[in-house]
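Box 3.1 A note on notation
Throughout this textbook, protein chains are presented in two layers. The first layer is the amino acid sequence; the second is a token string describing backbone geometry. Keep the layers aligned when reading.
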Amino acid sequence: MLEIDGASCYFFQEGPFWPKRVPDGHELVPIRLDWGFLSSRACSTIKRMATSDRIRIMIVDDHPLLHEGLANIIQYQPDMVLVGDVTIGCEAVRCFRECRPDVTLMDLQLPDMSGIDAMITIRSEFSEARLIMLTTFAGDVEIQRALEAGARAYVLKSSPPGELLSAIRQVHAGERVIPAELAGYLAEHYSDDPLTTREVEILRQVAGGNRNRDIATKLFIAEETVKSHIKHIMEKLGATDRTQALAIGVRRGVIKL
């Protein structure tokens, strides 16, 4: 029994119930609790305690089919419970504060911001937050950025459900999870010389169809400087021309089109 706002509540597997008193000598008869009667603080406390023995999960993803699929998978796991789900990054922080999930499944690409930026915002307030990045994208630069920002795991959306469930349990246990295929991809480019911030900006300008002269004007630098940067970009990416440099940059997650 739990005392919340002066109201005694009994907990059953289906949820919390009011105890209804009956004549002496008889047991209490449980009836469903009216959540509207309690304060929001009390409701949040009750819900947290009622699910404290399971892994509390929050989903942040804007793809309806995937979102529903993830929720259904979690629903049928006896050791997991879905406590929050949102579709945009700015709502993720608010939802995290209210739900305090054990593990958060975060889409890499959200409508209002990147999942990495949303994760950084959450972890700036909750440093122990455990997040798993979900994506269709396997660029080594983006993976590395996510891990450096504090992601505990990186899982492709094409992975089998069992692989995701295993990652959730491992992350909840304090482990880090990187699938073998992604780990190999990271190792392949581990010693690569990364592009500088200026080089990334110039590559974005090239992707936008800008000529060297246009890029120089926009960035307030000499055209020869632009040419020098592009040469270094191609050398670092192992490209033979601008078009190939763009293709490699997109594939590895250096830039997005």
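The radius of gyration is 25 Å. Residues 197-251 form a domain with the Arc Repressor Mutant, subunit A fold (CATH 1.10.10.10).
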